[in-house]
Amino acid sequence: MSLIPYDPFRQLENMRKDLNSMFSQDFSLNRELTVPRVDIYETDNEVVATCDIPGLESQDDVVININDDTVLTISGTINRTKETNDKHVHRQERYSGQFQRSMSLPSPVSEENVKATYKNGVLEVRMPKLKDHHHHHKKINIEFH
To answer: What is the pLDDT of residues 39-79, one digit of tens each?
Structure first.
């Protein structure tokens, strides 16, 4: 039996090799976690959300909802047609399937006169701000014992 000199980095090197091997193999990503990336900004009169959603083919592929004047929800489905035979695919990273994203808006918006446009894979939603929106705050009394 021969002695092997102690190398404190040998275990780290083995872990690195294992990780490289694991990530070089094909594995499926959890498609439910895919959500569009969104930028939200506001002007004096409106709140604007810009979303990267490549692959939509018609307005039936996406649904936009505004809840309680303060939450924007965008959901839908991306259907990619089969472009190649599965046995010839070496990498498949483009998303296909359902998506949903809900986000709080910086100001209350009106559900009327919302304008949504889709161009070059980018969905833009323009929502007019509510002018006569009054924030209702209720003071909560604290019981001290």
So the answer is: 999 999 999 999 998 888 888 888 999 998 899 999 988 87
Predicted local confidence at residue 18, as pLDDT: 73
* Residue type at position 140: I
CA distance 118 to 126: 12
Residue-wise pLDDT for 70-85, tens only, equals: 999 999 888 766 556 6
**Structural contact between residues 72 and 102, judged by C-beta atoms closer than 8 angstroms:** yes
Label residues 31-64 b or e (16+ Cβ within 10 Å = b).
eeeebbebebeeeeebbebebebeebeeeeebeb
DSSP 3-state of 58: coil
Output the pTM of the full model. Answer: 0.64
**Do you know the residue count of the chain?**
145
| Triad 58, 61, 62: Cα angle to 5° | 110
Distance CA 45, CA 128 (A): 6
42: helix, strand or coil: strand
CATH fold for the domain made of 31-82+95-128: Immunoglobulin-like (2.60.40)
Domain ranges of the chain: 31-82+95-128
